[in-house]
Write a structure and sequence with these properties.
Blueprint (H helix, E strand, L loop, with lengths): L12 E11 L7 E6 L22 E3 H9 L6 E5 L7 H14 L3 E6 L3 H5 L2 H6 L5 E4 L7 E4 L2 E3 L3 E4 L6 H5 L4 E5 L5 E5 L9
Helix pairs in contact: 1-2
Length: 198
Amino acid sequence: MAVEADPVGADPRWRIHSTLARSAANGPGVRFVVWSQGCSLRCPGCFNPDTHSPHGAGPRRVSDVVDEVVRTDGVQGVTLTGGEPLEQPDAVGAFCAAIRRRTDLGIIVLTGFSRAEVEGDARRAAAVADADLVVAGRYNARLRLGAGLRGSSNKEYWALTERYGAADLAGVPEAELVIGADGTITLTGMHGWEGGPR
């Protein structure tokens, strides 16, 4: 991963539920995952209701999260999920811009907002401007899919670059269980089990 210095500038705060340094179930390759805290969409059947409240997670500086990614060896990309990342568009935009500027990592954003809702809101659109792929749309439990980074079949792939294709997404595992050095267990991916970050 190429690394460049980050210019001095705005450093917004970001309410983050958790991060995971290495995941294979949140996009193609090994990825650094960031779960935002807070989601007013509250889709019925959401796998991650612990991330809905805007409270429960102290804000972090975007630059600190970027530095954490840059220090992590062996990842091919970052995935932003939640909660709802685009309810904190300034932080997400600053993060994606810094990752694009400082690394060659791929960027995927998972959002409950539709593509039209993102494109129709200047701040949300700016937040994903440096992403390679946005997976957009509300989770619909009646249309449960749980494959290719889509929790339900109504969710749309919105490619902003040619970095990721259908074959890359089809190969993403449905779920993974990660046991941290401190004994923390993280169940993640597009699995159908209740509880824990997805």
